[in-house]
Amino acid sequence: MKYNMKRNLIYYTLIFFSFTIFFFSCDDRKEDDRLLMNTHDMCEQVVYKNVIMMNGKKVEASRLEFIQQESSSVFLMKMYGIIPLEDGVPVIVEAIPDKDEIRFTGKSNDVRYQLEVEGRYTHLQLKSSTVSNEPFVEMNCKYKVLPQCGLLEKPFIFRLDTECMFFLNHRDETIEWNGQTLPKIEFMQTTLEHIRERLAKEVQAIKLIFHEDSSLDIWMKTTGSMDFTLWMNVQYWFLNTSENLYLELTTTQTELFYQQWTGKPTMFSPPFISFDSNRNLLPLFYSSDEKLSLAIIAPFCYSMAYCYLKSKGCEDLTEEEHDELSIFLEIIREGHRLNSWQVYLQSELVKSSE
Q1: How many angstroms from the chain centroid is the CA of residue 149?
Q2: What share of the chain is helix, strand, coil (3-state, %, to 5)?
Q3: What is the pLDDT of residues 132-169, one digit of tens each?
């Protein structure tokens, strides 16, 4: 009997080890079944399916393109729809093949910002097919504005209760006004001063503070108040060309902007570019040293002026003031066609101690 028990124990022990070996060998086989992807799989690929984090926020690219460079492991990746650049955001990435995926890292350097990316490229299993053939990218991005841009953490204050709006004209032209022949630039500058004085009845000053995470604080000091209050926080992005940027407002922020500027939540001729359902862009030209100068890029400046002059800007005016604004608006409209002028705002001198 002891012999039989011993024999059974050996028998069951062998069965146990057989199943154990079989189980782990199957698991190893499944692991080995995962194929090592080739970086060639990324060549000339256009990826529409993606999950992307930008500075900790989930965003979605309209598409990603991978263009192979001289080395088989180096690609030019172009991102569309994340940052509002027409030609896409170019990033050179290095690809490392892995099982069922290709991992990549890269960095895009501009004199004004740095964009770092880290992600993986793989294929999705389509429900309608047994073949996994739809490219998919999961990626984490960090967008950082560099100090060289000259904007970061400086309190740029635009005082509407003093001279801060200017008209720049590249053409030597005159205009008939009130029986006088005046240089057009003189007429426009005088009208701008009248507009600024009307604006200053509500808002004494505006303060802008740019941060390295591409966010911008807009502070406002209403007339009669002692302190600035935060009006809104928006995103800003640099364009491909130097000294141009976009302010990005959500739909709610856009309505708040219209309400402040025109007294109405929406306008027929908006100065914004609709980037997608909740991203509205205001294109600006800027120059920065110890002062910040901002100008709305044509033709959006005309839309901005039209919105104001057809709403708040024409309230409680005399007939002569109405005529002045009508001529002003017509000169702006004509100036856009000739690209011969610019209206810009200039901040106070930034104190070095601030």
Answers
A1: 16
A2: 30, 40, 30
A3: 578 999 999 999 999 988 899 999 999 999 989 998 77
